[in-house]
Amino acid sequence: MKSITSILALLAVGTTLALADDKPAAPAAPAAPAAGDAAKPKRDPAEVFKKLDTNGDGKISLDEFKAGPAGKKDPAKAEEFFKKKDKDNDGFLSLEEFSAHGEKKAK
């Protein structure tokens, strides 16, 4: 009895495999973008600014900036970035300062 069951099981598996070869392959799902991928969509600077401006005064303080994602990741780098962006050295980032692109380094 065990031999008959084993033979029937092998026939079922073989039939399933043979039928599976006749089916067209399902289309592959699009690959998810890798971390740091250039295709990653950029967020609107005004939207990010509004989230960082937690007290709603229209400017971002160093404390507000460091409480955001960049500050949580690396507070020292966040402070350095903030100071580079603060062109008028008033201790706050305006939307214009926050949105401005940095100067390119000379090669």
Structural class: mainly alpha
Strand content: under 5%
Biggest pleated-sheet summary: 2 strands, antiparallel
Q: State the end-to-end distance.
A: 80 Å
Helicity range of the residues? 40-55%
Spatially, the strands of the biggest sheet line up as 1-2
Q: What's a concise summary of this model?
A:
By secondary structure, the protein is mostly helical. It has helices at residues 2-22, 45-52, 62-66, 69-73, 75-85, 95-99, and strands at 60-61, 92-93.
Question: What do you see in this structure?
Answer:
- Helix content is 51%, strand content 4%.
- The chain is mainly α and 107 residues long.
- It is rod-shaped, with a radius of gyration of 29 Å.
- The protein has helices at residues 2-22, 45-52, 62-66, 69-73, 75-85, 95-99; strands at residues 60-61, 92-93.
- The chain has a two-stranded antiparallel sheet with strand order 1-2.
- It starts with a helix and ends in an 8-residue tail after the last helix.
- The chain has six helices and two strands, in the order ααβαααβα.
- The longest helix is centred in the N-terminal third of the chain and has 21 residues, at 2-22.
